[in-house]
Design brief:
The structure holds 3 protein chains of 3 kinds. Helices cover 48% and strands 18% of the residues of chain A. By secondary structure, chain A is α/β, with parallel strands linked by helices. Chain A has 2 domains: 207 residues, Rossmann fold (3-Layer(aba) Sandwich); 129 residues, 3-Layer(aba) Sandwich (Rossmann fold), CATH 3.40.50.2300. Chain B has one domain. The radius of gyration of chain B is 22 Å and the shape is globular. The chains are: A alpha/beta, B mainly alpha, C mainly alpha. Chains B and C meet through helix 6, helix 10, helix 12, helix 15 and helix 17 of B and helix 1, helix 5, helix 7, helix 10 and helix 12 of C.
């Protein structure tokens, strides 16, 4: 019996070993692809894209994937790139909105030597630990959606973002609540994530500094659905407005449950709320009058916005544009532009070398690109200089730019 | 259960290794050392990372195996001890930096090595603090209490308890750092060559391997000690064990705190390796996965616990990696490859059901347990009755 | 921090509605535990499946003009949708038992737990990949009114949920204590083998248990969809943990205990979030759980366990 057991164990080990052999084989080939015949064929260069494709905020994460896919498709139709002899493909990895999975995903992307830049990640809590991995590997990271200031304050030269930081958006919302809405008493709720906490804290700070009164500061847990007790508590404090630092699901449920309880005041939040999903979950009647701020100017007012919309609808029929799709598109396009410059300077086969990757980082730092969200360029920390923020309000069941 | 029978079983476990087994261990050891070095040399940092990550889970799985496998206590909040080790390690690290003259000083790099034992103690003490009031609870009541405790710890960390943990944003805060362990830079400078980098992940991988070996050594010794036999006796029949002089509370508390201790060690190691921790890494699902590792591998078996960790922590990542690898890039588009990655939990869930149906006692069950099982079956002949039912008949006066 | 007691009646209403849902789900845990001594981790996915089935049938049947033309039509529509959704969820539950748990009936006791976790992962990801990763709005087709009762706002939905929950609970309690099949279930839970020898068909009793538990969980899922207005593939996770907690507070394996535990837990949560801190409400709920178990190790209604040799 002992022998039988150990035989079986041995067989298992053999299976595992052969599995690793397969993996090994892959490692080998992946190293070859870039050294290989560069002259005769197109050089394949990859842009990593990582965001949550599964889990709670998968809708936003898949939106980022869509936006980046559009950019990559467009780049491959660009004759300029074809002339340089470059074909760009996407390397999509799920980070599950989880720091640990995110770090693994980051390692997976940097292990492929053809990856010269990444559009990653959605959550600040994932972008911060992964930035160290990209920094060590010497490839550029452009985040489409991580707004926590800490990300670019680490001093990494390779880290950029195309969205504005919480301080800008939170204090904009604080001013907006006082100046445009005339709010005096606000209940502030955050969703216990780095994004929500940061945004809510900045809002509360600015709102209080401008003379407003924060009547309640509360925390909720993600995935929770029942906020009736919280709403009842807030209702007794009689606020003019509820500010939610968080994502659309929880904020929409709070808005809905507040109105059902008879607390008929607007719910306001940041870019995490700026999606049709918010209205769908809350119900059009409940969401009416709710507000969200988002980075950049409205899509329809942007010269490229109309094109983006048309391209999106053609490629992903039946899907809606989510909050960060346009940022992901711009983030990917910034990397594409940088690749173009480096390829023109150093030659296509040099882009995926360590020196080429370093040159891509430098090219991104100096970029000046007219994107869908506005003109994209970066300050010395890596934050976007595009600090335009637009407030949107739900009117007749959809977000429209706020007008007095 | 008589003493003589116990002795027979113990002797099976500690018996001499057959040549085949020795060969097997040699192959495994060579693979464990050689493969990461090889992957690093071809620039495949991902596989090195996965090796190290799996190593952390092996440590957790071995630790929980003491609680679930040996002592038979179902703990659904084991990750709380892991979190304790991580947070205590990082927070004491700041104190250590302060004493040794700031993060830049030469001594600060010793914080990991110095704090390994305090972090282990933090895990163990948390285990004792939780265990003392609740360990007299019966099986599933204990499970839910530990589950609740795990959630309490996670939520307290998220709510920035005492202003220490920086809430969901995690540690270190902006401007603070977790000092790289002493030795990391040395190996990088001295063992790297033109086409081989002795990376951070590789360094930590070997640290983790050393700790896993230590854990295996300690646990093997425990298993064959008086305490280990007390655990088995207690697991099989608490009343009979108490009657023969086993102090039940104390025996349970030992299992609980020793298991928690390894959680603490894994925690601080993870924190110093990745350089960032946040409460989200210590959620309920993680606890559940570690329980799965122990049970899937085979309860009470050291190779089983390790294999369970390899399968559960490593397999989904390997599935994802293979889907994305150039080997299949001719067959699959980037879209399809990514979709396969998204299917990994679906596949994995199905596999768990199939594996349990095929090997309910786990893939590599402990010999002692397997033997207990067959003997019990021999006693209750013909009837397809398991030991489990036999042993549980007496403590089920519940009824609907 | 001043505590405003004027909201107490409202918080009680909030707690009772939430508690009713917990009680329905907790019954599924406790039924299965009573018969098989197994924590059915996949039960939270039954809750989710019930909501999805409910939405499916609601979408199909609301196209029939008869159902939406009159009040009686509406009532019939919802009754039929509920019955269909509960039946489908019940069948799903039986299928999981047949394929995932029955092969493990004589396995070591933690093996089915792992299978259940596998089933849970599988079903959750199936819903994510094959249906949608997004929240899906769950329509309420009849007008919802608010009533003012004893200082609290009570909506039609809350009344509907609490009343139907109580009816289902009474129905189940009667079924278990009065009918012959119920007697067979009780016998099986006390001693499976002796029950088998007395002529109880163990396999059908277990299959039935796995029909009733998930059916009730599915009903709770539909209530949740109506009450919160949307459903999502991972909606079962939190209510699942909470309801399991509720079942244990009441004394797992005890039906009335599960009902009591559900209402108590809903109530504690509402009070904790309403008067203490919403960030710590789960901490408070779990601390109370631990305290209850320290002082009553078998749960509130569980029999005190005497270890026999």
């Amino acid at each position: 019996m002992t022998i039988g057991k150990s035989k079986r164990f041995f067989a298992l080990v053999a299976v595992l070993a052969s599995l690793t052999m397969v993996v090994t084989g892959c490692g080998g080939t992946s190293a070859d692809t870039t050294d290989g015949d560069a002259g005769s064929e197109m050089v394949e260069i990859k842009i990593g894209v990582s965001s949550p494709f599964t889990g709670d905020v998968a809708a936003l994460g898949l939106g980022i994937k869509n936006g980046a896919t559009l950019a990559i498709d467009e780049a491959n139709n660009d004759p300029e790139l074809a002339e340089l002899g470059i074909k760009i493909s996407g390397f999509f990895v799920d980070d599950a909105a989880d720091p640990k999975t995110g770090v693994t995903a980051a390692n997976q992307m940097v292990s492929d030597s053809a990856v010269v830049g990444v559009v990653a990640h959605l959550n600040s809590g994932v972008s911060i630990p992964t930035s160290a991995v990209y920094n060590e590997a010497g490839i550029v990271q452009v985040s489409p959606a991580s707004t926590n200031p800490a990300l670019t304050e680490q001093g990494f030269a390779n880290v950029f973002r195309v969205c504005t930081i919480d301080t800008v958006q939170g204090s904009f919302a604080g001013d907006f609540a006082i100046d445009m809405l005339g709010a005096t008493k606000v209940a502030v709720i955050d969703d216990s994530t780095p994004y929500g906490e940061g945004l809510a804290a900045e809002f509360a700070k600015q709102f209080a500094a401008r003379g407003g009164e924060v009547v309640a500061t509360e925390k909720i847990q993600l995935k929770d659905q029942d906020f009736k007790a919280l709403v009842t508590k807030i209702q007794a404090l009689d606020p003019d407005m509820i500010y939610v630092g968080g994502m659309y699901t929880e904020a929409a449920l709070i808005s809905k449950q507040a109105k059902e309880a008879g607390l008929d005041v607007p719910t306001m939040g940041g870019d995490g709320l700026y999606t049709q999903q918010f209205v769908d979950i809350a119900g059009a009647a409940n969401a009416e009058g709710d507000l969200a701020t988002s980075v950049g100017l409205p899509l329809d007012l942007q010269p490229k916005g109309v094109d983006f919309k048309a391209a999106f609808e053609a490629t992903f029929p039946g899907q809606t544009i989510e909050a960060y799709d346009t940022y992901a598109y711009d983030a990917a396009m910034v990397i594409v532009e940088a690749i173009k410059q480096v390829a023109a300077d150093m030659g296509a086969d040099q882009v995926a070398t360590p020196a080429g990757k370093q040159a891509v980082i430098e090219a991104v730092a100096a970029i000046n690109y007219a994107g869908v969200t506005g003109d994209v360029s970066f300050d010395e920390k890596g934050d976007t200089t595009n600090k335009a923020i637009t407030a949107y309000v739900v009117k007749d069941g959809a977000f429209v730019p706020y007008e007095q | 259960m008589g003493g003589s029978k116990m002795d027979v079983m113990t002797s099976i476990d500690s018996g001499k290794l057959s040549p085949k087994k020795i060969a097997l261990y040699v192959v495994l050891a060579l693979a464990a050392i050689g493969l990461p070095l090889y992957f690093q040399s071809v620039g495949n940092a991902f596989m090195v990372h996965i090796f190290a990550l799996v190593g952390i889970y092996i440590m957790l799985s071995l630790g929980l195996n003491i609680v679930v496998g040996y002592a038979g206590l179902l703990d659904l909040g084991y990750i709380a001890f892991y979190g304790m080790g991580a947070y205590v390690g990082v927070l004491l690290g700041y104190v250590f930096q302060g004493i040794t003259g700031g993060p830049g000083s030469a001594l600060a790099g010793f914080s990991y090595w110095f704090l390994l034992i305090p972090a282990a103690l933090a895990g163990a003490l948390t285990g004792i603090a939780l265990g003392t009031p609740v360990l007299r609870l019966r099986g599933d009541y204990l499970a839910i209490v530990t589950l609740g405790f795990g959630e309490i710890v996670r939520i307290a960390l998220t709510n920035n308890i005492g202003g220490l943990t920086n809430g969901s944003a995690g540690l270190p805060r902006v401007g603070e750092i977790i000092v790289p362990a002493a030795g990391q830079k040395w190996v990088y400078l001295n063992l790297s060559s033109a086409n081989f980098t002795f990376s951070k992940d590789l360094f930590w991988y070997f640290v983790i391997v050393a700790l896993v070996l230590l854990a295996v050594f300690v646990i093997r010794r425990l298993d064959n000690s008086r305490l280990g036999r007390a655990w088995v006796a207690m697991r099989e029949d608490e009343v009979a064990a108490a009657a023969t002089g086993v102090n039940i509370m104390q025996t349970k508390l030992w299992a609980f705190s020793l298991g928690a201790m390894w959680g603490g060690v894994a925690g601080i190691t993870y924190a110093y390796w990745v350089g960032f921790i946040s409460p989200e890494s210590f959620n309920f699902m993680e606890s559940v996965l570690v329980v799965c590792m122990v049970v899937l591998g085979g309860m009470g078996s050291i190779p089983g616990a390790a294999l369970g960790a390899v399968i559960i922590a490593g397999l989904p990542e390997i599935i994802r990696y293979l889907a994305q690898s150039p080997l299949l890039s001719g067959v699959l588009t980037a879209e399809q490859a990514s979709a396969i990655g998204d299917y990994r939990f679906l596949i994995f869930g199905g596999l768990m059901v199939v594996m349990m149906a095929l090997r309910p006692q786990g893939i590599l069950p402990s010999k002692r347990r397997a033997r207990e099982l067959t003997e019990a079956e021999a006693i209750i002949e013909e009837e397809n009755e398991s030991l489990w039912e036999a042993e549980h008949k007496h403590d089920t006066p519940h009824g609907l | 921090m001043s505590i405003d007691l004027s909201t107490v009646p409202q918080q009680i209403v909030n707690g009772v509605t939430l508690g009713g849902m917990y009680a329905l789900i907790a019954l599924g845990y406790t039924l299965v535990y009573g018969i098989l001594l197994m924590i059915n981790f996949a039960h939270s996915e039954m809750f989710m499946a019930g909501a999805y089935f409910g939405l499916l049938f609601l979408n199909i049947l609301s196209k029939v003009a008869f159902f939406t033309s009159s009040t009686i039509g509406f009532i019939l529509l919802y009754v039929i949708v509920f019955l269909l959704a509960m039946t489908c969820t019940g069948i799903l539950g039986m299928l999981t038992e047949r394929f995932a748990y029955r092969p493990l009936r004589h396995a070591p006791r933690l093996a089915p737990l792992i299978s259940a976790i596998g089933v849970s992962l599988f079903l959750q990801n199936a819903a994510l990949l094959w249906i949608s990763s997004r929240s899906i709005p769950f329509p309420v087709l009849f007008p919802v009114k608010n009533y003012r009762i004893a200082g609290a706002n009570v909506s039609t939905l809350q009344i509907l949920i609490v009343v139907s929950t109580i009816l289902l609970l009474i129905g189940l309690d009667t079924f278990i204590s009065k009918t012959k099949i119920g007697k067979a279930m009780r016998a099986t839970s006390q001693d499976r083998d002796a029950a088998g020898l007395m002529g109880v068909n163990i396999n059908s009793v277990i299959a039935l248990t796995f029909f009733i538990g998930p059916a009730l969980g599915g009903a709770a899922g539909m209530f949740s969809g109506m009450y919160y207005g949307n459903i999502k593939y991972n909606m079962g996770f939190i209510p699942g943990i909470k309801s399991f907690t509720a079942a244990v507070i009441g004394g797992i394996g005890n039906l009335r205990g599960a009902m009591l535990g559900g209402f108590i837990l809903g109530f504690i949560e509402a009070i904790a979030a309403g008067f203490l801190s919403s960030g710590y409400k789960d901490v408070i709920a779990f601390l109370i759980l631990i305290l209850v178990l320290i002082f009553r190790p078998g749960g509130l209604l569980g029999e005190s366990v005497v270890e026999k040799v």
